[in-house]
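Input sequence (452 aa), recorded before submission:
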Amino acid sequence: KIMNEVKVLEQFLSNEQCMELISIAENIAVKYPKSPYVLLDSTGIDLRFFGYDSHHCPSIHSHLREVQPNGYTDKLVEKMNKLFHNWYPALSRENLYMTHIYLIKYDMDGDVLHPVHTDDSQYTLNICLGKEFEGGSLYFCEEGNKLVSQYEQIPGTGIFHKGYLPHGANSISSGERYNLIIWFGSIRLFTLFDEMDIDLHHLFYQYLDVTTLVQLMMTSKKYCETIKNNTYLWKTLATNMFFEGVDGYLSLKQEFMKIDKNSHQQRVLDEILDTEKMYLEQLTIISDQFVPKIVEEGVLSPQNSSRLFGDIDNIIAVSKEFVNILENFVDNAFRSTTRYHQFTKACMSIFSYIGGFYSSYVLQYQSIKSEMNTLLRVNTRAKEIWDSIDTKHLNIDAFIIMPVRRIPRYKLLFSEIGRKDNELSEITQPLLSVLNRNCEQINRQLVEFENN
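Predicted structure, token format:
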């Protein structure tokens, strides 16, 4: 059965197309080395953020479109739909649309294999691009990871399969291999929704089953909100499914649990984003409003300003990047396991990077606090400037200690993301380890400072 659901597409891409995609990926990695969406390993470069999208999956970073050959993804999706309709005539009224596209790399210095997993897609297209390598066959399993079939990876050859099939990639024994991975959804009803008035959506929802409703919620944040908040709809579904017996009731309960889990994650992510935005706004008050005025009026020399507030400017720069990462992730209603891996790696990079800032800042913030309190107490003009800006009713101490209190708060919040999901708990564990190390470092330095 599994073998019937796997389609091998020989010479799907030419050698020139494969080399062009590899070149584009390598250029992106060089051009955007600090981007959280550029991870040239088995996690992959998320090509949607660099112009590779389709009509149903618009690019967030449209200004990066120059990297895409003209109409590449639309032509590829069109080609796949022709094949799809030939393979599955009964689904001729459905069309594939791209939900995710990324390029991954395996080499002897990094990831050499991919363990058994399933994809968060209805269908997956896996295209081997090259370069030169040995080993690394793609295999499919039944439940219990019993091997059913495996396929040699040949540059230019694509393997199309249903996303729920357990599969993995064996270890390469030499060289390096690039693969282009594309996830598809199947679209039938959903294309009509964008043309419908929102009030009509609620009428239409009543004719959909629970599974379809949940799938629809995953396609758009707008649909997610309108469906989730439709109390009458869920009451009706509960009543209808009750009369279908125990199985129907349990099915509804399971879907509710999924929604509750996603809602919990959404609340935590929203709180992290709101916290970071507030933190950035408050530190920016010092950096943009208070410090320039006291330097301009000669209350504080440029040298002392740099000594007292230099690291705050660096932390603000990193905070802006963190807000950008959070907004791009939080605003996307469809969060696959792969996207959570990418998000976690990006956050780890952020908190590892600012570790150096915090090491010096923790040792200085007590003296900064003391000097600033003395300045505001003895210098009338400094106090007038401080009182003239919108400090959100916080005193100078609260502003200065904010970076130190930030890490323990995020440790608690990120641990909440995986509280209702064991898989996400494992994914976020490396990030929590980084935050734990930062917390321990802060506490250790504070103890040493107080003892000295």
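Checked by second reader. Confidence is low (pLDDT under 50) at residues 54-70, 242-246.
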